[in-house]
Amino acid sequence: MSDTPDAPVAADEPPRPNRVDGRRLRSERTRRLIIEAYMALVRETGQMPTALQIAERAGYSVRSVFERFPDLTALRIAVTDYAIAEGRASGVLRDLDADRLTRIKSQVEQRGSGCERWLPLWRVLSADAAHSADLQQRIRMIRQLVVMRMEMMFRPELSAVSDDTRKKIVLALEALLDFESWARMRELYGLSFDEASAVWVKSIDRLLPTASSGP
Amino acid sequence: MTSAASAPGVDGRRQRSERTRQLIIEAYLALLREDPHIPTSARIAERAGYSVRSVFERFPDLLALRIAATDHAFALGNAQAPLRDLDGDRPTRIRSQVQTRAQTCENWLPLWRALNANHGDSAELKARIKLMRTAIMQRLETMYRPELSALDERERRNILIALEALTDFESWARMREDYGLPIEQARVVWIETIDRLLPPTPGA
After folding, report:
1. How far apart are the C-alpha atoms of B191 and B193, rounded to whole Å?
2. Which option is the CATH number for B9-66: 3.20.20, 1.10.3470, 1.10.10, 2.40.128?
3. ipTM topping 0.90
4. Which residues 135-174 of A are in CB contact (within 8 Å) with B?
5. A131 in contact with B at a CB cutoff of 8 Å?
6. DSSP string spanning chain A?
7. Chain A residues near residue B197 by CB distance under 8 angstroms
């Protein structure tokens, strides 16, 4: 598959919305395929791919890659934004009104699946974040989203304690549910998905206070 | 020269060579603390006050130097963190464990990060990371033996995994760097949450 260059528009022709829309759609599709190629390569190798690898995998030329992204850092940022959007779309809050154990299990299922899917990309981004303020900002955003989700899922329990205690518990939950915490269970200790989930479920249950009221 | 006469000379040379080796390792560790990127041989040599050739006379390649530096750091870290208060009550043991672990994180976080980010495909470096994690788990198990001994093996393992995650280097780094907690406040977070994670102390 090769890249299709944008056709030039004659100066004396009136604008043709359909053609412009078609070009924009093709360009957007190319951009998305490049992003998906980057993510696929990271998942397969756990390494930061080169421009040539990305272009080959996406089916375009290296030039096409750099026509859409001024440099690889810009591509990395676009990949991160894409991953954040996909993660948010697939991580819909569920069981918010359920009993404590159901909420804990729901949170662990979602977070465990997220770690399985996004760990390689997370590692590549984290390892290289020192070079880019934009990447650091996105890493902070991902962490904030994880924390916000926990605070919503465990609102009945967290609202029953002082602000100070709540902050400490949230810090501990964040450490417990970190990407690398999941990775150690799966890679270093050889736990299955269900065994690793059970560790988290039990630990969250120990860390969370008793809710003042409600289910 | 007779062997009796040469022994002190040989010992002196060996000592000087060992000292050079040690200074190269210390230069490597100092550079890593300042910058998480793996230093070049030229920078290491410059910092240690030797030539690049001297570096490669002591270490066949930079990987060998990294492994030696990791071993040195591990030995030093262990020496700085003796087990204390093993017979103390539960709050004393938790405080003691947190104090030691926090100090280790403060001292060794830059090296730990560099080691994890740059181990590449080196089986030897990966083995050392595993060894360090095993040592952390063993220390946790020893410190909280009264609480853990009443549990079955799986439950004990699960709590140790959670304790390790809670007191991981990056957990400490988040509290200190991202949330800006002073050392004492960060310690309190760990103390209170370890207390929540641990099962009741038998006979207490």
Report:
1. 6
2. 1.10.10
3. no
4. 140, 143, 165, 168-169, 171-172, 174
5. no
6. ----PPPP--TTSPP-HHHHHHHHHHHHHHHHHHHHHHHHHHHHHSSPPPHHHHHHHHTS-HHHHHHH-SSHHHHHHHHHHHHHHHHHHH-----TTS-HHHHHHHHHHHHHHHHHHHHHHHHHHHHHGGG-HHHHHHHHHHHHHHHHHHHHHTHHHHTTS-HHHHHHHHHHHHHHT-HHHHHIIIIIS---HHHHHHHHHHHHHHHSPPPSS--
7. 203, 206-207
Task: Flag if B130 and A178 touch (Cβ within 8 Å).
Answer: no
CA distances from B9 to B3, B15, B18, B21 (A): 10, 10, 14, 18
Name the residue of chain A whose CA is nearest to B113's CA.
A127
- List pLDDT tens digits, range A122-176: 888 887 777 788 888 888 889 899 999 999 999 999 999 999 999 999 999 999 9
The string of pLDDT tens digits covering residues A47-68 is 889 999 999 999 999 999 999 9
Question: Of B36, B161, B166, which is closest to A172 when you measure between CB atoms?
Answer: B166
Give pLDDT tens digits for B140-194: 999 999 999 989 999 999 999 999 999 999 999 999 999 999 999 999 999 999 9
B116, closest residue in chain A (CA to CA): A127
